[in-house]
Structure to design on (128 residues):
């Protein structure tokens, strides 16, 4: 408990010193809202997938603008696509998959997808 109080004070001080920094009480949500063991992984230390989803649902409206919330599904789609590992990276179908993702990235200039775009371009180049 003492450590959490020190961390909370430090977080408040940092948030007070920087106008663009806000404290989000994820730890407190876990302790106060999700006290039941079903919200923890088998090790009883880490949050379960259900707890992570619960905190995420609280986090989104607390920190994301309406525009960011609207873009979230498209952003998630591109990030998941970049993490996808194809069965046949040398296939034309996969190169087309990468070209489509590059087109989707171009349609979202307000989001920084530099790493993902480089990944898709590199996949097209090395697999051609």
């Amino acid at each position: 408990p003492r450590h959490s109080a020190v961390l909370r004070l430090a977080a408040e001080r940092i948030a007070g010193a920087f106008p663009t920094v806000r404290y989000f009480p994820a730890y407190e949500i876990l302790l106060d809202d999700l006290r039941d063991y079903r919200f923890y992984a088998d090790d009883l230390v880490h949050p379960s997938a259900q707890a992570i989803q619960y905190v995420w649902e609280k986090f989104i409206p607390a920190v994301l603008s309406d525009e960011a919330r609207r873009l979230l599904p498209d952003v998630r789609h591109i990030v998941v696509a970049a993490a996808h590992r194809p069965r046949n990276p040398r296939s034309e179908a996969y190169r087309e998959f990468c070209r489509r993702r590059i087109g989707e990235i171009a349609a979202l200039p307000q989001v920084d997808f530099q790493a993902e775009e480089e990944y898709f371009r590199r996949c097209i180049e090395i697999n051609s």
